[in-house]
Amino acid sequence: MKPANLLRWYPRAWRERYGEELLVLIQDTLDDGRPTWRLRLGVIWGGLLERGHQARSRAVKWLTKPNQPTTMVVAGMMVALLPANVMTLPSPPRGSQVAALVALLAAVSLTAAVVAADGLAALPALVRFLRAGGWPKIRRRVAWAGGATAVAGGALAGLMLAFGSRSATQLNASWGYLAAWLATGTAMAIAIALWATAATGTAKHLTRAPRVRAVQLLLSAVAGIMVTVALATLNFWWSVTQAPPWLAVGLVWLALASVDAWRRIPQAVRRGRRLRAAASGTTIVNPSAPRTHGRHRF
Amino acid sequence: MATHGLRRANDPPLLILVSLADGPKHGHALAKDIEQFAGVRLGPGALYGAITRLVERGLIEPLGGDDRRRPYQITPPGSAALAEALAEMRRITRAGVTRLGLDPA
Predict the structure, then answer these.
(1) Backbone phi, then psi, for A213, in 5-degree steps?
(2) Does A295 reach chain B within 8 Å, measured CB to CB?
(3) Pick from A230, A265, A286, B90: most CB atoms within 10 A?
(4) How many CB atoms lie within 10 A of CB B82?
(5) B71 to chain A: nearest residue by CA?
(6) Are the C-beta atoms of residues A46 and A25 closer than 8 Å to each other?
């Protein structure tokens, strides 16, 4: 096997970046012009490890970053289910139902508080931006988000008016309710996505101190995780009000929230530190570097 | 407490950082230097696996050049990481030497 063929064991991106260097090193290492089996196996093993590393990185990215749009769609659909849930609750509710509802309300309140704190941190910068005549730059995005919210709110109200008097059995058998729920859920998801886009677009125009940006990075990470936790508590509530299998779905959301927390919070802290370090003129470490727990990792 | 293999003196990333501590080197020069000062012979696969991780973590960086042998240099965070790891090793070594009664002091 020629040295160049050994590179096939490595991922394409790695080959493009390091392949030539590795080939040169292999040629430099050879004494008699032919690679030994030990060298070949070492290079092949290195390639397999690199592929494993790449697969792990992809898996972690898949478990975290792509969740944002998915979470928005699922959140929209779940919010659209809430009115029917509340209206078909038995009276008086059982203790477990009350506890689950309290947990849900606590999770939603906490999420709202974190989102509000995130917004408040940027409020002085937003006021400065608006006073400097920045409103036209963000007006369109905010108008779209506001319009979508009005449509989603109207759809939710219409859903409650049209189907509020029906029992859970009737709702489950109704194609009309299913269509209305899907339409309302989609409208909710679009409204959430447009607000997220408006917030991101506005943030790009704001001049914030590195400390404020660091705090916002952390709060944004916590808010994202809290949304997932709130969805988990919603499923726990459904598991005691609708059907026990929802408990499994809630546990999946909770697991996703844990993975998110494990990855996103240290990442946000690290980026915040680098922002502050960059502002004070200290060397910035590679932003994609993993967490170190205060200890450097080789 | 995560150790990440920092306490192993023959850990390839640690050996690479030590080798680069006195100046930039390309792959072959790194392998030769490591063999000389540590007695560890790193194959091309192991060497470039470790170089990839160190570059990803911002602890070393490639230098530009026309030569196919691209040299690498240690970064300030890399120097800090190496100093931290060596200090920890020194503490452990000192404790072991003292307890074995090998330390004349």
Answers:
(1) -65, -40
(2) yes
(3) A230
(4) 22
(5) A21
(6) no
Alpha-carbon A29 to chain mean position: 46
The pair of structure tokens assigned to A195 is 């607000």
Interface test with chain B among A30, A267, A280, A298, by most B beta carbons within 10 Å:
A298
Query: What letter does residue B63 receive in the DSSP assignment?
Result: P
Nearest alpha-carbon partner for A51 in A10, A7, A12: A10
Distances (CA, A) of B37 to A113, B32, B48: 57, 9, 19
- Tokens 């192993």 identify what position? B8
Q: Is A31 in the B-facing interface, judged by CB distances under 8 Å?
A: no
Residues in a beta bridge with B73: B61
Sign of the alpha-carbon dihedral angle for A158, A159, A163, A167: negative
Residue type, A145: A
**Backbone CA torsion sign across A214, A218, A219, A224:** positive
Kindly report the number of other CB atoms within 10 A of residue A72's CB atom: 20
Interface confidence, given as ipTM, is 0.81
Nearest to B26 by CA among B5, B51, B8: B51
